[in-house]
Amino acid sequence: MTEARIIVVTSGKGGVGKTTTSANLGMSIARLGYKVCLIDADIGLRNLDLLLGLENRILYTAIDILDGECRLDQALIRDKRWKNLSLLSMSRNRQRYNVTRAHMVQLCEAIIALGYQFILLDCPAGIDVGFINAISPAKEALIVTTPEITSIRDADRVAGLLEANGIYNVKLLVNRVRPDMIQKNDMMSVKDVQEMLGIPLLGAIPEDPQVIISTNRGEPLVLQKQLSLSGIAFENAARRLIGKQDYFVDLNNPHKGLFQKIGEMFGS
Ligand SMILES: Nc1ncnc2c1ncn2[C@@H]1O[C@H](COP(=O)(O)OP(=O)(O)O)[C@@H](O)[C@H]1O
Ligand SMILES: [Mg+2]
């Protein structure tokens, strides 16, 4: 059996798409046949449960496990659509947060002992205790940024912190890309962002109102019958993450053949 992968989804800046990315990559990887656990490591502001439509099913959090109030399997919420996808929330709103780095490592070890092959940790915004806890069990990281200078600067800072904490396997996901604005030189291209940060690119996701619709419905984009371009882009990123695909979705030419070779992409 190959070793389980523990990946932290992080950004520094809030509101750039970490939770959206965690939900969609998690769901995609589960659909590709792997056993996946999503951990909502946000403190007091959890919302991964909402994106997955699982908000009414959470009885226990990781803090309840640590307090001896429940077992791990009681706090793991299984998705009804894909039973190989589970969600663990770290804490409830206003719940006392007394989690340490050692706790996080223990939790992940216990989850892997249950046969999970992927753990995706959805990081809180900022770089304080919640961030440090979320990155401590991780062997890999996915940095999410938008093509905006404030987000890129925070992504760069987080990249430095990850390296300082021994996480060298880092990939980049550029979210909320607008090809129309890139064409007019009003937005940095994905290639520019990638070169500024010097982190290998996992994927680029377009700005898409479907993201908001799917959030409100509690149904990740990648589950839609007719995939939107953002859904295709997330699925593509998931396939790349598991090493199945070497193509990027071309956000500029969605109707002229969806997939293009790496070298040809995002040329503008
Ligand atoms: N590609 C996108 N297109 C349109 N809206 C997006 C996109 N990605 C994220 N959003 C919206 O941005 C907001 C923040 O996303 P979220 O995933 O919660 O970010 P974070 O977890 O980093 O704070 C949400 O309202 C979400 O619906
Ligand atoms: Mg979030």
From TrEMBL:
GO terms for cellular component: cytoplasmic side of plasma membrane; cytosol. Belongs to the ParA family. MinD subfamily. ATPase required for the correct placement of the division site. GO terms for molecular function: ATP binding; ATP hydrolysis activity. Keywords: ATP-binding, Cell cycle, Cell division, Nucleotide-binding, Septation. Residues 7-221 form the CobQ/CobB/MinD/ParA nucleotide binding domain. This is Putative septum site-determining protein MinD. One of its GO terms (biological process) is cell division. SUPFAM superfamilies: P-loop containing nucleoside triphosphate hydrolases. The keyword ATP-binding applies. The keyword Nuclease does not apply. It comes from Gonium pectorale (Green alga). ATP binds at K13, G14, G15, V16, G17, K18, T19, T20.
